Amino acid sequence: MNMILKTARTTAIGAALGASLLATTVSAQELRGWNIHVEDYPVSIGMESFVAEVSEKTDGRVTGKVFHNGVLGDQPDAIEQARLGAIDFGVFSLGPMGQVVPETNVVSLPFIFKSTDQMYRLMDGDVGDEIGKGLEAKGLVALGWYDAGARSFYNSIKPINTPEDVVGMKVRVMNNDLFVGMVESMGGNATPMAFGEVYQSLRTGVVDGAENNPPSYESTNHYEVAKYYSLSEHLIIPECLCMSKATWDRFSPEDQEIVMAAGRASADLQRGLWQEREAASMAKVEAAGTIVNRVENKVPFQEAMAGVYASFLEDNPDLEGLVKMIRDAD
Ligand code: BDP
């Protein structure tokens, strides 16, 4: 075959292939999902089930891919990208979300929920609706509230039983001024830092400790480099399966209904998996030599952190009603 003919034929095949590929990309909407966690984490399984259900119920009109392990960027960046529509959906902690959506900060106040059961009830009711409105005003649609248990302190130096034990300790926190204030209220030094940098920072002593729920403490291997885990349970912060409003607005009302229902269903699944994973993570870290202590008296921590509420309400007087709604609930 002469060279010119061959090239012409290859180009023709290429063009035909290109056209058919283009046709698929235009008709099917491949959504990009951001996830910070490893693939077998409850959040990750919830997100995969969300994508599978959406694809099935829309007969493949809407498909999606979840990018696990934070490969699409760390959380504060991903929140911005989702607001702009560069990422279509993700499961975000309402902790770092507070820097963008003030309403979400109320669930980052220490000891605000009495239990995770109470958190579920309130997030599935009026409190969740109010927070959802705040998210929507900033370009995000909440499809479901995921569980992230309760966060507790861990470090490489000693067990924490009282706020005084934190004096002088370098503690990593999520990106939100509230958490800096929380650690400083006990006399610790707070360092906001991306989740992916914490292991190395603990290992090299850049920080002495951090705080998180059992599944995150375990799945990141932080327990290998910070063996004292003190169950203070000072923060119960839910997470949202959120979709970019830019993406959401492209769907027909029928597809929006499918997406919303799939989001809710995935949250139910995730909450069940969460309970199992918490128990499994605790068993794993204890077997590996983590020294766990339960903080028997939480009152001194609540007293030390009371100032966090006072300054928050001073800066956000309009959120007093929402704070009260949670505090007064059974
Ligand atoms: C985990 C949350 C994740 C946060 C992480 C952190 O699920 O969204 O990024 O904590 O501490 O529990 O940064």
UniProtKB/TrEMBL annotation:
Keywords: Periplasm, Receptor, Signal. One of its GO terms (cellular component) is outer membrane-bounded periplasmic space. GO terms for biological process: transmembrane transport. It is found in: Periplasm. The keyword Plastid does not apply. Residues 1-28 form the signal peptide. The keyword Signal applies. It comes from the Bacteria. InterPro entries: DctP_fam (IPR018389), TRAP_DctP (IPR004682), TRAP_DctP_sf (IPR038404). One of its GO terms (molecular function) is carbohydrate binding. PANTHER family: DICARBOXYLATE-BINDING PERIPLASMIC PROTEIN (PTHR33376:SF2), PTHR33376. This is Tripartite ATP-independent transporter solute receptor, DctP family. The lineage of its organism: Bacteria, Pseudomonadati, Pseudomonadota, Alphaproteobacteria, Rhodobacterales.
